[in-house]
Amino acid sequence: MSGCPFHFTRRGFLSIAGAAAALGAGLGAGHFLGDKGNGLSGSAASEAFWGSHQSGIITPAQNHTYFAAFDLVTNKRDDVIKLLQNWTSATSRMTQGLTAVQENSEGGDSGDTQGLPPSRLTVTFGFGAGMFSKEGTDRYGLAARRPEALVDMPVFAGDQLVSERTGGDVSVQACADDPQVAFHAVRQLVRLAEGIAQIRWTQVGFIANPTDNRTARNLMGFKDGTGNPDTRNSALMDQFVWVGQEGPEWMRGGSYVVARRARIALEHWDKMKTSFQEQIIGREKKSGAPLGKKDEFDKGDLDAVDADGNLLIPENSHLRLATAASNKGAQILRRSYSYNDGVSYTAERWPPWRQGMEYDAGLLFMCYQRDPRTGFIQIFDKMSKFDMMGQFVTHIGGGLFACPSGVHQGEFIGQRLFQAV
Asked: Quick one: which of 150, 120, 118 has its CA closest to 132?
């Protein structure tokens, strides 16, 4: 292998095949380029809910997220329709800074966002495999409508997925510039789901807000999301993000989201020299430029070598393995968030090198694509085996969800799926 070899040991549950690879070229989404929202600044802005595509996919990334995966606990198709109708109505109101339901309605609203502006709230919905069949039962008559692209996720090298943090029948991702606004949105949807759906797992996330309005940095200290396709380029979005005529009618204009909770061994990463970290990522830490280049957005030269003939961008570096040039042109739209859930302490029964404090922190990796088979799965299969960053990261949960097209006023999310039955 060209570049920096490995001569050190990591804690037992981390392997070189670890799942950090899927964090992508630049590890996630960071802030998307361009103005936020509708031209207003900060919390005063609101994002449109109605439209051909769901908001929260190519929307410029907000500062906070609250992601929730739900299990459907009803066997009645009409219950699911009622839930989606209520969720659509509530979300359309909350994104405009209103209560989830009419203020004089039974049950009301929790009221914890009174006096707060919309904060660019978006709520993006997705359907997991359990929406179509579960435990061999076609409980809603939708089994034949499951998209081919909504595959069962393969087990990747290094995966250590925990069942309690994996899967789900429905996904909800609330994003906002105020963390309370994002949590409030999911909280109200949970209230409306009583007896129909219940939370399976959740994850809170955040994105740094750099003063220069440039690319944010992740918890590893590197700029995050540099390699994303330009969300302002509609041709690129049609090519890589939005489902086209190849998909079922109800999914056209929608997208597939892969969510992965990736824990990063920050306590070990922080001990590495910056030069070594740069070899792992394939970029300079300060500027974000590919090794051998000067600017963050310069294209990495995968053939460039140093005076000794070694590749400037190591063959097992994150950048090289994630770039489209190494993956038959495949690209995904990363929209990830850092998370910090405190610390844990290893027990004395572990070997000395495993004992001590560990951060429960890392990345809620999120990516949208037209087809996960030619997007995330194609990219991550190779990266999970070879990415040097896998020594520091372990994927412990997540899921794949089909996010249907957007809705227009008078419709509910996923309506075309149920009408087709």
From this structure: 150
